[in-house]
């Protein structure tokens, strides 16, 4: 039996939903690129504009950040938040990111969190929530979970490493931020990353470990597989670490 792939299942359901509603389907990456090009041409056109030009100029605008262009909804007021147009291909990643940020929040929390920054249709949120294994497991259990907090009594007893996704607003070549925190003191170290490859994460963690020492336990919300791959890379970069 094949492993369940939530991303594949999400797009299978979304494609089925939009099968008889093609006009309501979110823009693809290619369509967004086309619209941004149309906006640029319309702005440069000093002559008579077409009806299409007026439509896109009234509805959308192009935001450039670190040489990367984003399609955004036209602001009606300077005080309005910038709202990005999310492509069809990016829906799953964006929803997954905010679902984790909201602590696996439901429809209300998800819409509230997304509404100020992204334009994502309700059916996409509903579909995503319907395939979340964690949320579905909660529905099937009426037992109250008793969560025992993890207590660290000393510095370097436990370290937490996580990656913050900045792909939508990169700083040049840097698209991720490594966030390392000592569990006891809450001291944080931040490093910009070009990617989330284990070797790059390990290289930056090694800088921290050689400065402050390595923790007895390394944990991450990115999962055990991620931590294991990072530790293996650290062993390659720092063979002496295996002696401790």
TrEMBL record:
Top-level division of the source organism's lineage: Eukaryota
Entries under InterPro entries matching the protein: Integrase_cat-core, Retrovirus_Pol_polyprotein, RNaseH-like_sf, RNaseH_sf
MF terms (GO), sorted A to Z: nucleic acid binding
Gene Ontology biological-process annotations: DNA integration
Annotated ranges, domain Integrase catalytic: 145-244
Protein name listed in UniProt: KRAB-A domain-containing protein 2-like
The species this protein was found in: Sipha flava (yellow sugarcane aphid)
